[in-house]
Amino acid sequence: MTGRRDFLSQPAPENYVAGLGRGATGFTTRSDLGPAREGPSEDQIKEALAKRAAQLGFSDAVTGKKKDQAAEEDDNDERFQDPDNEVGLFAGGIYDKDDDEADRIYREIDEKMDKRRKKRREAREQAEREEYERKNPKISQQFADLKRGLESITEDEWAALPEVGDLTGRTKRARQAKHQRFYAVPDSVIAAASNAGELGTTVADDGAASAGTSKSGADGTTTDFAKIGQARDKVLQVRLDQASQNGTSTTSGSATSVDPRGYLTSLARSQLPESAAQVGDINRVRELLGSVIKTNPDNGPGWIAAARLEELAGKIVAARNMIARGCEHCPENADVWLENIRLNDQRNAKIIAANAIKKNNRSIVLWVEAMKLEDDMRSKKKVIRHALDHVPTSEALWKEAVNLEEDPEDAKLLLAKATELIPSSVDLWLALARLESPENAQKVLNRARKQIPTSHEIWIAAARLQEQLGQGEKVNVMKRAAQVLVKESAMPKREEWITEAEKCEAEGAIITCGGIIRETLGYGLDEDDDRKETWLEDARGSINRGMFETARAIYAYALRVFPTSKTIWLAAADLERNYGKREDLWQVLEKAVNAVPHSEVLWMMLAKEKWQAGEIDNARLVLARAFQQNPNNEDIWLAAVKLEAENAQTEQARGLLKQARQEAPTDRVWMKSVAFERQLNNLDEALDLVQQALNLFPAYPKLWMMKGQLYEDLGKKPQAREAYATGVKAVPSSVPLWLLYARLEESMGLLPKARSVLDRARLAVPKSPELWCEAVRLELRAGDTKQAESLMERARRDVPKNKQGLLWAEKIWHLTEPKQRKSRAVDAVKEAENDPVLLVAVARIFWGERRLDKAQNWFERALVRDSDLGDSWAWYYKFLVEHGTPEKRDEVIKKCVGVEPRHGEVWQRVAKDPKNARMSVEEILKIVAAEVH
């Protein structure tokens, strides 16, 4: 056993104070039984710190640093004590023009880097938002299935649902009635109640008449009907006032807070509204505003709010007196004077305006208001000139003075004086230039450019002046403007220049518009930026705003930078086709084929435009030139064949196809050859060609489809079945081939065989909405609705949600009761909102409900989503035949012809029928519109 004490039993070190290291000191409280020990003195603390520092080898006991180190840091601390007295690296803090340029460069770099990362950032944010919504669904989404389940509840079941609140109240009332006790009422109470309503006309002992009182002999109480009437009026007034309370004041105990600025707008009405539910407690607000102006009588908005409150209450005299007091307390507040002028008639307003100007002779708004109070033009000019004597550098006053002048010469004199006094006003310089002759205007603009070298408006005005003088093409003002503005670091952004160009176009300055785009569109964009897409987006924006000349200029500039871009050429041609002249379109396409001679699309567009204009020979010449640039191109071969076939040149077309099969033997050329013979009803020749083609291209599904259809046309269904069966083995991924095979089996009355074909098709091509939809339709045609519903549910589980538009449309129209179609459509739109087939189905629902505007909107949404779907055009046209105007129908036909749709269940069947081979798009549209149902 050691005799050493444990830690807690050891005596404390010398001068030890608990918590001293944490900054604690001893203190005494009332609850202490005796005096607490007093902490160490300051000398004792310093002595202890010095002793400890000496042991550790430091000379500075306070900071724990050596002397030289402490001295050095003290020197550094003193250096940065005064931020205005910087030395060393930070000496000479003069912010010059180079620093501005550096800041601008860094800012542009930051903007460019942010723009590069914008798409990735937006995609990431969208993914994070979708993930959050998936993990945290809304309440409405969580209970959507339960809501749909309510559709199956009958009216009797609804009626049988118990009222929970009624049951609770009934139980409570029964419990209270069980324990309630009743007592007999004394006769004195009954007697007092019977005499309570009697009127008395007795005279009191003091001689005063009490005709307006009612006395009860039972208890001696007296009722004052005058006070009752006053109370009733007061209650009515309070209710009316509470309805207009705007909520801008709050009262809590003795504290009151009012927002005077809120009352400036909320009390702007001159009379109480008719609805009593919207009238406020004016008395209470009056007290609050009175507290505001008493607390701070120099608060102008408070006086204005108080005056408007009285005006709102219909007390116009009180409002005038209130605002007059406000003018006395706030003589330098122009808003208070303006409110005083507004509340008074014209005669008094002039006097008030004169007094206001004496107190505020440099207030622009007061001078302008005083001018407006005058009736004759001479007095208005006199007031404005007095104002200019007091405030000669006010641009607003000079503008008012110029607007008052009727003689242009006098206006020019005023503007000349104004530009001398205010040389930095762009508007004044431009106004002077517009009033001068072209020669003098040029001098004015030159002086303005010297005074304001950073103004792009002056440069644009100079360019427009040159255009008016006929020198717009010769003098490139905007090129010089861009150079000067860049040098002055005052170059606007590309978007601002496009806005200025559109403004010039709207005012008829087409050459200036083109010059602005030509010299500024590339500013701020480097080669590593996506300049092509940026400029295409700019052009689309201008087209949407109806600024076609600006869009043409943007395309022209983009083509100078990217002369071989097929995308830009096609966009420029599309602009001319939709909004330009035919000659301009031909000119653009001629430039396009010269710039991109190996683009067969541009050649065919030019040939087609010549052909549609009736210039058949020129179209042939265009195709001949295309052959020279693109030998053995199948598209050009087929375009030439179509040109000859459409113009009834059968032998020439057949010869071209034969030559094409020899020089450009592609599967598409062979297919077109078979289709050509089939259209001419040469079925045997077509069969021979299709067999030769299949020997060369056995994996081309259209050839197998055409072989089967040819056998069907000949009435040889077994051979057609064999062709389809062989075709699906050779090309198992072709959905149309499977559909033709199944429909052939169904037409032959072999429903089990047709079901088997569709089952095999879904194994070969899983998740195909067309195959699932055909299986559902097969069961519906067979009359088995339950099996169709079962297949539909399986289809919805198998097919991705974004491809279920066709399935939803089928379910809505053939597997849903009419009353439930709308709610079913709501669920469908949530899952496949952008599917055009579904959008058309929704439009048909609104059509059936006679909500024609909504139906039209949904039809147009479907066309915007996919304009290549011919069935959508047909449904829309059918709708317009019943409910549209002839102009709207013609517009839809024109747009459909321009788009030339190629897809759609009914559209493809009608368009590819050999009997309709020579029909136009308009004729096919009308046939399809008659067939869809």
TrEMBL record:
Domain PRP1 splicing factor N-terminal: 12-170
Keywords, comma-separated and alphabetical: mRNA processing, mRNA splicing, Nucleus, Repeat, TPR repeat
Segments for region (Disordered): 1-44, 60-95, 111-136, 204-223
PROSITE patterns in alphabetical order: TPR
Record's compositionally biased regions (Basic and acidic residues): 122-136
Subcellular location: Nucleus
Start and stop residues of the TPR repeats: 701-734
Biological processes annotated in GO: spliceosomal tri-snRNP complex assembly
Name recorded for this polypeptide: PRP1 splicing factor N-terminal domain-containing protein
Species of provenance: Xylaria flabelliformis
Lineage, highest ranks first: Eukaryota, Fungi, Dikarya, Ascomycota, Pezizomycotina
